[in-house]
């Protein structure tokens, strides 16, 4: 989990919405918050700061203020309960695994070629008499 704080040149709600939309497409995103007073965008999650800044620089002038681990809230410790031991998953036969792979990659035939019929005026007996 990373917390990235960026400074953006955002002036109104429309540009704020545009910046939030650009950032929201990233994978591993937990939360996005924008402080319009200080013009700071705070993003937390498992994200790459370089990719985040690259997306925003296409829209606005962007400066990185800080990159660091996200602060996690302290939770009350509950008494630990003993968990029953989990059974180990059964081993699959190599033939079954191969059959699953074969189903995924079934033969796909290329499309049939399109044949075009081109008629010339010289070969067509029903064409113009003058020609």
TrEMBL record:
UniProt entry tagged with the keyword Calcium: no
PROSITE patterns in the record: HMA_2
InterPro entries from the UniProt entry: HIPP, HMA_dom, HMA_dom_sf
GO molecular function: metal ion binding
Region of interest: Disordered: 67-99
Keyword Metal-binding: yes
Composition bias, Basic and acidic residues: 70-99
Domain of life of the organism encoding this protein: Eukaryota
Domain HMA: 1-68
PANTHER family: COPPER TRANSPORT PROTEIN FAMILY-RELATED (PTHR45811)
Family: Belongs to the HIPP family.
Protein name per UniProt: HMA domain-containing protein
Organism this protein belongs to: Malus domestica
């Amino acid at each position: 989990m990373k917390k990235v704080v960026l400074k953006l040149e955002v002036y109104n709600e429309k540009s704020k919405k545009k910046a939030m939309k650009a950032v929201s497409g990233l994978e591993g995103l937990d939360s996005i918050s924008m402080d319009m007073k200080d013009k700071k965008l705070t993003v937390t999650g498992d994200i790459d700061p370089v990719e985040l800044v690259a997306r925003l620089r296409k829209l606005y002038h962007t400066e990185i203020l800080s990159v660091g681990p996200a602060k996690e809230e302290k939770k009350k410790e509950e008494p630990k309960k003993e968990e029953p031991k989990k059974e180990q998953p059964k081993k699959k036969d190599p033939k079954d695994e191969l059959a699953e792979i074969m189903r995924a990659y079934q033969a796909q035939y290329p499309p049939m070629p399109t044949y075009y019929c081109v008629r010339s005026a010289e070969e067509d007996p029903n064409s113009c008499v003058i020609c």
